[in-house]
Amino acid sequence: xxxxxxxxxxxxxxxxAENEFWAYKTENNxxxxxxxxxxxxxxxxxxxxxxxxxxxxxxxxxxxxxLREFQILNKSNECKKLIKKRGSYYKTIEGEFTDYFQIIQKxxxxxxxxxxxxxxxxxxxxxxxxMIRALLNIIGLKxxxxxxxxxxGSGTTALEAQPLKDLGYELEKMRDSFIGVRGNGxxxxxxxxxxxxxxxxxxxxxxxxxxxxxxVIGNATYQGKEIKTVEFTIEYMESxxxxxxxxxxxxxxxxxxxxxxxxxxxxxxxx
Length: 271
Known about the structure:
The chain has 271 residues and is of the alpha+beta class. It has a domain of 102 residues: 3-Layer(aba) Sandwich (Rossmann fold), CATH 3.40.50.150. It has nine helices and ten strands. Helix 2 packs parallel to helix 5 and helix 8 packs parallel to helix 9. The longest helix has 20 residues. It is globular, with a radius of gyration of 21 Å.
């Protein structure tokens, strides 16, 4: 008697994922549509950033088709060029693929966030380059402006902002200077807070008045206790003279993530 083994749901989904670029579907059925999101955009925080990005670029719009499309109300060639060149979460604008969509076609892996050198170092705490690209647009970054990332990590912000990247250092020698790595046991959290304070102070010192600082951070768990990092950040930033403009919840998915939620904090320097 022949025995047939049925594939489990997990095996079926894995096989499907291995055989198609679901995030990069290159067929274009959007010729009559103003603005369409990338196929892989699926979280509320991504939609929030996409809308804030459009507003920052001066685009007036209405959402359509279950929030996956936007009808542009102030159409112009300039608006089209801005979205096509600088947009982060959009696949097509009036039927034409955006620059961002074209870039991610060159990925060496199937992840939407691994284009260019964004996965050269698999740092677990790294954030999505799409998110950083959108935030740089939202805070009004212009050519010639300088972006400071005091927590450069694997260089996501540096790559999206496209300045020279902070290369050439020996990581082993830098370890004792890393925020969150210094110390052990009881004093690690204390050292972390002191390092973060100095970082926030430096952000305030170098930032011009009425400009923005964006911090993506979550409450960590250390030795079984939750560390209220988000609340600490908001309180200390406000004490320095920043005002909290926006606080966006970001859910974290993935097998290797201990932290399940982050907050995207957008501050403005008032004084």
